[in-house]
Kinesin-like protein
Amino acid sequence: MDAHARSRMPPPHQTPKLSSRSTPLVPKTPSHMKSPPLTTSHNGNTPHHTSGSISHVLSPKEGGGSTRLKIKSATTPEAKSRLLVKPIPAGVKAQMQRNSNNELLATPSVRLVNRAKTPNYEPTLADEGWMSADSHQVNSNPTMMDFDDYENEMAETEAVLVSVRVRPPNPVELRSDAGCVWTMPEHDQHLLKLAKGTEGTREDRDWIFDRILPPHSDNGRVYGTSARRHVRSAMEGYNAVIFAYGQTASGKTHTLSGSSSEPGIIPLSITDLFSQIRSTPDREFLLRASYLELYNETIIDLLSPSGSSTGAELHLSEGKKGVIINGLTEIAVRSELDVKRLLRSGEDRRKVGATDWNSRSSRSHCVFRITIESRSRNSAVEEPPIGARTPGGRLKTAGDKMTRISTLSIIDLAGSEKHTSSKERNAEGKHINQSLLTLKLVISKLADLASKRNVTHVPYRDSKLTRLLQNSLSGDALISVICTVSPSHLNLAESISTLAFAQGLKRVVLKAQKKEVVDPQALIQQYQNEIAELRAQLLEKETVGGNKNEREKNEAMEKRLNELKSMILTSVTVNSPDMNDNTAMVPPSPAKMKYPKLEYDRPSAELLEELHAEQLHRAELEDEVARLKAELATRPIEPNKEIVTLRNEVAELRLIADDYERHLLEPSRKVRADVEKEFNDKMKNLENQLDSKKIWANRLDENVRFITQENKALEMRCKEAESKVTQIIEFINLALSPSNSNDHSGLLPISEEESDYASSTPPIFNINQSDELPALVVTDDFSPSPLMMGNNGKSTLTLSASKMRATFSQMDLANFNDKFGTLSMSGRGNNNNGLINKQQHNRGLGISNHKMLREESNFALAEIAAGDDDEYY
Ligand SMILES: Nc1ncnc2c1ncn2[C@@H]1O[C@H](COP(=O)(O)OP(=O)(O)OP(=O)(O)O)[C@@H](O)[C@H]1O
């Protein structure tokens, strides 16, 4: 800044006297920033930020390269949000000037964009100084701007920078399938609104914040918009606080710590700090880190050398400079690697636990703090005026320099949460919720205070969290808050509560000031003094020479000198970052943790003694490790997750199989049983039938046997009859023979009685009516009593019907006819030619004429041969 310009500027830390018409364009911001503050406040309670008016707009030509812009006063929060100050591109020096009317002029590099008039305006990553999304590294060679001119035009007050980050839906929310309830118009990165038709709320507000970070924003982008400015402010001597606020599992830890693939704000800040040192050759720095957690209202030093796994408890007290944390371990760091190691060891001690919503939930509030001391390396520039007083009241000497002392605090608040299913988690949750409630109350009181409302008491002391933040909240720091919300309707109430808190934060007014003092207590000053002393002593020793003891002392002094020098970081001495160095993730050794100041604070004898003690302790630990290993070897191997999952699957499949068994196999078994039963019944039935048929067959066999016997008997009888018939035939033939025509000797003589009988009982048949032939008489008498009779003196053969049948069948009828003439039957019916007995007549067998009789006789003969006696009649 040239002398002329300087003379126009108000001195540092002095409220710039702006005319009522003039208004600062941007909030107060450290001077060196590549990307000056972007947004104005959206809140009517911080009028300095947006109510400016520049009356006349000059063309670049008119302004000799400067563009004059007019900003109208914004009257509503919505209108205010539409004013966006574009950042100054890297490498371009900002020149903020006022014209004769005290109106603010900007060079073309500081562009003011009325977003309302350029609806399609799309800020690019480069425009906004964001880091590339795929590289999470901070620009290692940023162009440091001479920002003093710019800074001096700024307001004395600053609003909290409030960003809202909506995280992507998690698997549970995806399953609920309701999508994101928040809409974030792409052309307006300040506006957040509930999606139309969201159930369960009447909320219809436009939520306006400094930056809305939609779900696809990565940590690099979040850092660029919401943290980088504060980190660089801290390098410039401002206390800066960055914290994340939101319900549990909304993404606070992801935003601040991130992961190895997507580092969060803390690792990105560290990288940025060291890259700032590398690019600031005219200053030297000393960095110290501390890390504490607030768990169940107890403050625990996560870097304490106590060696315990939890860290030492700390207490707060009030001092002149505000709240002091007594005994907090601060460890000087020389490289990114040092810081990351400390972080890692602190994180190992942090309380995390699984809740119903987050498997690794932070159960405590955590504050990671880097204290930055820096001095100019150019003694000519910043030598304070001789006789000026130091903060302790001591008069400054010509050797004292102005030292900037500031802190960068990054706070991961535990998430506000609902009742959980675990008792321990509930107890923690009570403390967490209580402290967050107090924080809200404090914020609301501070907002009232900023609105000039009557506030008698700000309840900082009601919780340790607000006491820890008291210095920062009461205005001594620049604050950026990243409020994290879930995209899901499942968490709508909590998200709205978070946004209400964020809205309250916007009303808080800060009065952060750069702390640049001559402070002999500043560690960097002490180190420099010691370095100077050691150098002088060594120089003296060199000239004097000395014995062995002296030489050892010299060596020790030299070592100490080198150590001290290594603590003072300059653009030359600071290590270049080695991004591939995996050892960054390795926690420091316990010994190093236990004695952080080992190298430069303590005499060597003491150190040797402690080394010995450490060696003993190490031996003990090795024994313990061996014991634990042995114990581990005897333990049953826990099934790994995959096996457990597979087991569960098997159990499920078993259930399904049982189900199948019940629903499918059971009925089929029943059907089979039914079929088998039916088959068996049929078999039994058939067997019974077979048995009864066998009985029948046996009976039939018996019958056959019986019939066969009968047949045999009948055959016998037939044979007998045949022989008798043969006899008869022989007799007849004999009787018929001509030689014996008168010889009736073959015939049985008819007794007198028989003769009577024959005359009284007419024969049935009177065969052969001719006179020459003997007559054959067949009677219906079954008695085989052939008798000869001759009423006309002729021989008569009388046969019974049954005898006649057997006889005639064997007779030579032709011969018979020759012998006996025509067989005729006669009766006493109406035909006097034949004889028929009364019995036959009664049975209707009367023969009507002779011819018929002959035919009938032939027929009868045949029938007689085949038929039965009875049927014949
Ligand atoms: N922006 C994001 N992108 C991807 N994953 C995210 C994002 N934000 C959060 N997550 C994931 O959601 C889970 C919960 O996030 P995180 O632990 O950061 O929540 P939290 O707010 O810190 O919760 P708590 O208060 O319980 O500690 C983590 O698995 C994290 O990786």
Remarks:
- Residues 167-168, 170, 246, 248-254, 358, 360-362, 414-415, 484 surround adenosine-5'-triphosphate (CB under 6 Å).
- The chain is about 40% helix and 15% strand.
- The chain has a mean pLDDT of 66.
